[in-house]
Each structure stands twice: as structure tokens, then as C-alpha cells.
Amino acid sequence: MKIGKETNRHCPKCNKHTVNVISIYKAGKQRGSSLGARTHEKDRKGYGGQKFPELKRTAKTTKKITLRYKCKECSKVVMGRGFRLRKLEIVA
Predict the structure, then answer these.
(1) Which residue, 41, 60, 66, 64, is CA-closest to 51?
(2) Domain residues of the chain, as ranges?
(3) pLDDT tens digits, residue range 52-69?
């Protein structure tokens, strides 16, 4: 699927319709020292096996893609709702 680089949509900060720049959201690198990662490792450790079943194979053929909309006037960034598709291409 191809979408344009810019779109006109409502900005919650400006409270009006403005031109927004579209980019694909990519999650940052996860920290191994974070509380959630430490707790998960503690749950896996020792006897008793996994807390949750380990994923052996992936069932889904697509991933959810989240779009970031950045207002050109005030630079406010709003995240869009994730939707499933195989490939997203941002064209000029």
C-alpha cells in the first residue's frame, strides 16, 4: 500500500485542521535492566518451567503498522491507530 508523505488532519494542540507529516513508528531498543525484563527473567529461572508458553511458530503473516503524524505548525506528534498490512510505502 502506498500513502502520501503529508496529509491534512486535525491537530489537538492547534485545535484545527493542519498539514501533518506521516512517518512509520518504530519501537526503540528494549533495555535488559528494565523492571519488566528483570521480573520476566526471575519468573523463567529455576524449576517450574515457563510462566507463559514459548511461541514456537508465528501464525500471522502481517504485522501491525503504527503511523506518526507530526503537525507542521506546532510540531505536535500524534500516534495513529495500528492497522495490519504486509508492506507500507510512503511516497512523495
Answers:
(1) 41
(2) 1-28+63-92
(3) 778 888 888 999 999 999
Query: Which residues are registered as beta bridge partners of 2?
Result: 89
Give the pTM: 0.76
Contacts of 64 (CB under 8 A, 6+ apart): 82, 83, 84
User: Residue 87 is placed in which grid cell?
Assistant: 508492506
Contact between 89 and 2 under an 8 Å Cβ cutoff? The reply is: yes
Second CATH level (architecture) for the domain 1-28+63-92: Roll (3.10)
* Rounded-to-integer distance, Cα 19 and Cα 9, Å: 6
Q: How many CB atoms lie within 10 A of CB 88?
A: 14
Ranking 18-22, 41-45, 52-56 by mean pLDDT, the lowest is 52-56
